[in-house]
Amino acid sequence: MAVQDEPLHILFFPFLASGHLIPIADMAALFAGRGVRCSILTTPVNAAIIRSAVGCANDAFAGTGSPTIDIAVVPFPDVGLPPGVENCTALTSLDDRDKFFQAAQLLREPFDRFLADHRTDAVVSDSFFNWSVDAAAERGVPRIAFLGSSMFARSCSDSMLRHNPLENAPDDPDALVLLPGLPHRIELRRSQMMDPAKKPWNWEFSKSVNAADQRSFGEVFNSFHELEPDYVEHFHKTLARRVWLVGPVALASKDMAVRGTDAPSPDADSCIRWLDAKPAGSVVYVSFGTLTKFAPAELHQLARALDVSGVNFVWVIAAAEGQDSAEWMPEGFAELIARGDRGFMVRGWAPQMLILSYPALGGFMTHCGWNSVLEAVTAGVPMVTWPRYEDQFNNEKLVVELLKVGVSIGAKDNASGIEAHEVIAAEVIAESIQRLMESDAIRKKAKDLGAKARSAVEKGGSSYDDVDRLMDVLTARRSSVEAGEDIQAS
Ligand code: UDP
């Protein structure tokens, strides 16, 4: 086959965290469905996380003429971490985190080898692999950055990194600090922001990530134009970047039950049956992604809140978290769950997208990880927002203040999974849940937004068209390269 007639080939290179792997596997399914040959480069434990989803996509494409998706598995570099610790979820100390990032640097060698051995039209690289911009350029391959966040949050962090507004802000954790240069007046509490004085490592890393993305061929977003139009404009005009919004990519998933895991919770099927029996809009789904950890005192208040709120709920609790229920479970809570009339607990991995799509769903209490936010938007489900760190506070602003599809519980402290958080009282949490479940206006807005999200990926929708635009650019670039024109990778 002449080179021009071969399908485009894109290498996807996700960071080693489920919240990065899941949308990349979805995006590969999306692009493969549009005729692109897709490869995903990752390590064994991370390959296992996406293997079922990729297998389902390949099965769905069988006989349709769509190219298949390959997973190129490379060993996790030996940096002294215990065997099997290959994903952010397994990190429990700052020392391990440092080793983990060292391993991420060492993936440059297999990444480079892949590009040397395969004709590749573009790399969709996780922004966290900041070195891949140079590695791809050395092989003449355009790097398209993917951070897996919203354009809004990306614009906020760009504003932070450019202007460092904390430098001249009052030294009061509650002081409201303005993020300059954005389309809206966006203020956060000092305590909610990344503070370069307190976390110089995070600051420097974010700066290098931003710089590498700026030097890239462009950026791809799991978002859609109608969701954050002012920030699409901001990127194009103010930041002069090439961007493609191709989401919500979760809609490309071929089997929601196995998305993001090789080991669904044994509670998953009964949870679905339980939801089936509940009235429309009556259940709040409580889940905080893959990295968030709660102290026993926080779990205690959350459990009390779910009890006193009087609302039906599904609560997903990670297998390792809250194992010792004597440490946190309030009196009467085990009985509430055992009765099965008002509350259901999923221990382990829940089929989140599937759950969110159930008519019984009336709200989602979320930490505002971008995947979760966009999944809620897609399903038309409003949110109770409880951000924990980094871009989650920005995503909360978008959800509550700009889109008006959520109620905040008022979390103030930006602290990572392995740091302590302020304990929020059950009464405050319960009040936010009740306010959300009682608001017709918020519910209606969320439903409207869900309809827009779903039509964005339909033929003729904005995300559908952005995939076309990206394919056209890459096809034109390949023709120029084949014609021997002197083409830069960025
Ligand atoms: N997820 C899931 N089941 C779970 C926990 C998480 O399907 O029990 C998925 C969720 O649907 C989302 C991703 O894991 O796609 C979490 O990503 P997000 O950006 O929300 O949070 P992170 O884990 O990166 O903090």
TrEMBL record:
InterPro entries: UDP_glucos_trans, UDP_glycos_trans_CS. Belongs to the UDP-glycosyltransferase family. Transmembrane segments: none annotated. It comes from the Eukaryota. GO terms for molecular function: UDP-glycosyltransferase activity. PANTHER family: GLYCOSYLTRANSFERASE, SCOPOLETIN GLUCOSYLTRANSFERASE-LIKE. This is Glycosyltransferase. Its EC number is 2.4.1.-. Keywords: Glycosyltransferase, Transferase.
